[in-house]
Design a protein that fits this description.
With 387 residues, the protein is an alpha/beta fold. It has one domain (6-24, 40-386): 3-Layer(aba) Sandwich (Rossmann fold), CATH 3.40.50.1820. The protein is 42% helix and 15% strand. Helix 4 runs parallel beside helix 15 (371-386), helix 8 (238-245) packs across helix 12 and helix 10 packs across helix 11.
């Protein structure tokens, strides 16, 4: 079996960038009916025009590419699945291996603000005893973990792949952290491999199998969370239903139109982040376009969207029926402004819950929105487990 790990450098071709520019210049803009200033019907036309003008005339992919390439990146293949990952060695006496898991529509680059401080805490005024060896894989089918041509790769399967990746890197036991699908991967690791997982830190919680949260699980002070989750499932999950059932159909449009892809991805940043003071108080135009470019250049909208399709009920998943479902120690940093906050009472049954905190600033993309808060909570959780 070929278990080589090879250094990797991002290098878009001039032809790719020239083709992108031509497509942007030829954008055929849709009509916008009524007042969509608050993005009620989806991506806002005026903002997408503004962002596209910036994309054409100001955004510098080569500068952003160089920033990405400053991080040590690698590629390997596990069970026929190409895997791209960042691997930053910690600066401390005994760094703890930590695998950070992103979600959709994230990329590895969403972790950039927390990688350095977690690997080198002394470099930002922290304690070197808190150092981690930080591993940030791109999920299968996302950006440079491509092309993914075989079906069946979901977050359950990804957890198994990550154990093999950590074996390949020489780590027997390791910590894990994640949000969105990344939280479900981290939970699956703690479910299937409690002997290997030091602990799982989650900033988004969702069941990987029954039992599911019930309305009676919400305490009075959590009722607003239950209402928010219900609203999201009624009004905000159209993208999910499409990607769970027919991901191939929108791929024809989103693999062909860069502005179409941008609208699909940027709208999720607006809808899911804590943008109460405005989208660009959280994400700069460069931040938004970096994400779009990583999906565009790798042509991975369809394989990333298929992650939902492969997670449908009935696909291979849980490995036991014990309670708690996740037996490895779990720490939760719940963001009240996230899209689906869940009740603590359910979490205490579902996880081997060792830590619970609630944050009232920041949202779904917390490593980008409030990196300092994330860093502090991750360090505190694992410090308690390791001392």
């Amino acid at each position: 079996m070929d278990d080589r790990i090879e250094p990797f450098t991002i290098a878009a071709t001039d032809a790719q960038l020239g083709d992108l520019r031509e497509r942007l210049l030829r954008t055929r803009w849709p009509r916008e009916i009524g007042d969509n200033g608050a993005w009620q019907a989806g991506a806002n036309l005026a903002y997408m025009r503004e962002l596209t003008d910036y994309w054409l005339n100001t955004y510098d992919w080569r500068a952003q590419e160089a920033k990405m390439n400053a991080l040590p990146q690698f590629r390997t293949t596990i069970d026929g699945v190409p895997i791209h990952f960042i691997h930053v060695r910690g600066k401390g006496s005994n760094p703890t291996p930590l695998i950070l898991n992103h979600g959709w529509p994230w990329t590895f680059w969403d972790m950039r603000e927390i990688i350095g401080p977690l690997a080198d805490p002394a470099g930002v005024g922290g304690d070197p005893a808190d150092a981690f060896d930080v591993i940030v894989p791109s999920l299968p089918g996302f950006t440079f973990s491509s092309p993914l041509d075989r079906p069946g790769v979901n977050f359950f399967e990804t957890a198994h792949l990550w154990v093999k990746l950590m074996d390949r890197l020489g780590y027997e036991r390791f910590a894990t952290q994640g949000g969105d699908f990344g939280a479900m991967i981290s939970a699956m690791l703690g479910h299937a491999y409690p002997d290997r997982v030091i602990g799982a830190h989650l900033h988004f919680i969702a069941p990987i199998k029954p039992p599911y949260p019930e309305p009676s699980d919400f305490e009075p002070h959590e009722y607003a969370w239950g209402a928010k989750t219900q609203t999201f499932m009624q009004d905000g999950n159209g993208y999910m239903q499409i990607q769970r059932t027919r991901p191939q159909t929108p791929a024809f449009a989103l693999n062909d139109s860069p502005v179409g892809l941008a609208a699909w991805l940027v709208e999720k940043r607006y809808a899911w982040a804590d943008v109460r003071d405005g989208l660009e108080t959280v994400f700069s135009k460069d931040d938004l376009l970096d994400t779009v470019m990583l999906y565009w250049l790798t042509e991975t909208y369809v394989s990333s969207a298929r992650y939902y399709y492969e997670a449908r009920p009935g696909n291979a998943g849980p490995v036991h029926d014990r309670v708690p479902v996740v037996e490895a120690p779990v720490g939760v940093l719940q963001f009240a402004e996230d899209v689906m906050p869940q009740p603590r009472r359910w979490a205490e049954r579902y996880y081997n819950l060792q830590r619970w905190n609630v944050a009232h600033t920041g949202g779904h993309f917390a490593p980008m929105e409030v990196p300092d808060l994330m860093i502090d909570d991750i360090r505190a959780f694992f410090r308690e487990l390791l001392t």
